[in-house]
Design brief:
Length: 478
């Protein structure tokens, strides 16, 4: 784990900052800090970027793994995922560091990411006072992701702020622990406030093949319009690992330069699913198997097991099972394959850390039939914990959750029967003194999330599944 930084000058949006400042340890970089923590502290102090926000961005991109200088699928390097022809070269100009150093040296890479963020902040007009407020950096964070659309840029930035709210505890490849204490910030989204919330219920479009997926179309240069299964039988499902983040993969598939795509992308933290190519069309994901298969990309990197969560396995398995049932594909390892098993491929994903035993057990569902891959925590999001629940007969359970970091409550109704089939279900939350908010309709897996700020307030909550209804009194006050 190297921590070298060159002594030269840093040009930042027309302002020359001596790079020797990079060698000065600010108060935040104590002698107890390891080289990675110290590098984040130095870069944050030098470029006046909030340290917690800088680490949260790096964790969202790479889980603080520089991948030994190897690029991601979209050409990004290092913990800060400096991308070729975008942030990498700009970081080199701003820090006067060689590109190769930025690719392979952790401290240089972190400084480069901070320099680019500061340049974006300067171009957005953030003065010294504004730079101290993490909420004001939203536009710079959104721009850093390089998304092809404002909607994906918002998804990217929201992920970073969500991570900061829940806190980060990561271990670098050198074994060093790097932490961010939970810190809830209400971001100033500016122009991005008008962008579509891709985690919101409005993105679950009826035009997708899998009702639980959000719909974000790939660029038309990255797939071939077809008429499967009429034109070509679909008899394989291919499991991929994206070598990148969820938002980054979605953005890459929207980039016409990519020339690749997959039908679905699955998020690590909660198993959220985005569809990007219709199953009838041929995504460019598996060479010889493009005509006969449906491809599922998973957020993460093949050499880092921390990305492969139970929520991801369960959600991807439910999607895989749904696809297999609709096309009559046998649920076995001959027909559900890794990218590395495709004839003629040179890919290694999903790699040795992918747990095929667990995944296939979830796909086949054991002897008890299909299970709901979603939990109340995965529906409501990071930081939410169940504080109460009520059974809705045998059809489902309605849950009340609370997030101590931001004082918000959340209600989600999770189905137990008719899993994967749209049936009437609802969830509601009413904060005393405010109007009730309800999510109701025909859903395959759950209703909600219904969230509201409720610190110091009493709430009424409940829901419906099948013919069973639960309505609470005002309770859980304070």
């Amino acid at each position: 784990m190297r921590a070298r930084l060159r002594r030269s000058a840093v040009l930042l949006t027309g302002v020359l900052i001596p790079a020797s400042l990079l060698m000065v340890s600010p108060a935040a970089a104590t002698s107890a800090d390891g080289p990675v923590s110290a590098a984040f502290a130095r870069a944050a102090a030098t470029y006046e970027v909030p340290r917690d926000l800088l680490i949260s961005l790096a964790y969202a991109e790479t889980h603080l793994d520089g991948h030994d200088g190897e690029p991601s699928a979209s050409g990004g390097y290092g913990m800060m995922h400096l991308v070729t022809s975008r942030t990498l070269e700009r970081a080199a100009t701003l820090t006067d560091q060689p590109v190769q150093e930025l690719k392979s040296d952790d401290a240089a890479n972190i400084a480069g990411g901070a320099a680019v963020l500061r340049a974006y902040a300067d171009e957005a007009g953030l003065d010294a006072a504004a730079r101290k407020d993490p909420a004001r950096w939203y536009g710079a964070i959104a721009r850093y992701g390089g998304a092809a659309s404002a909607d994906v840029a918002r998804l990217y930035a929201d992920t970073v702020y969500d991570l900061m709210a829940e806190g980060v505890r990561a271990t670098s490849t050198g074994g060093e622990s790097v932490t961010v204490k939970p810190r809830a910030v209400e971001p100033d989204r500016g122009a991005y406030a008008k962008a579509k919330d891709l985690d919101g219920p409005s993105t679950f479009a009826a035009s997708t093949d899998y009702p639980q997926a959000a719909w974000v179309p790939a660029n038309s240069a990255n797939y071939a319009v077809s008429s499967r299964p009429t034109s070509d039988k679909i008899d394989r499902i291919v499991i991929h690992v994206a070598q990148g983040s969820y938002a980054g993969t979605i953005s890459w598939f929207q980039n016409p330069a990519a020339k690749v795509s997959s039908h679905y992308v699955v998020r690590s933290s909660d198993g959220a699913v985005t569809q990007m190519v219709r199953e009838k069309d041929r995504a460019f994901h598996a060479g010889e198997y493009n005509r006969r298969s449906v491809g599922i990309e998973h957020e993460g990197f093949v050499n880092d097991a921390t990305w492969f969560t139970d929520a991801m396995y369960r959600s991807s398995a439910a999607l895989t099972r749904n696809i297999a049932d609709r096309y009559g594909i046998p649920k076995d390892r001959t027909h559900i394959v890794g990218h590395n098993q495709v004839p003629g491929t040179d890919h290694t994903d999903p790699g040795g850390h992918w747990n095929w035993t667990t995944f296939m057990r979830y796909v086949t569902g054991g002897s008890g039939g299909p299970t709901n891959p979603h939990t109340p925590e995965s529906v409501c999001g990071s930081g939410y914990k169940v504080i109460d629940s009520a059974a809705l007969g045998t059809a489902g359970t309605v849950h009340l959750l609370y997030n101590s970091a931001n004082g918000n409550n959340c209600v989600a109704t999770i189905k137990k029967t008719s899993i994967g089939t749209a049936t009437a279900i609802s969830a509601y939350l009413e904060v005393q003194g405010k109007a009730r908010v309800t999510d109701s309709g025909s859903f395959a897996y759950y209703a909600g999330p219904v969230r509201a700020a409720a610190a110091g307030k009493c709430v009424k909550w409940g829901g419906k599944a099948g013919s069973a209804v639960y309505d609470s009194p005002f309770e859980h006050c304070g």
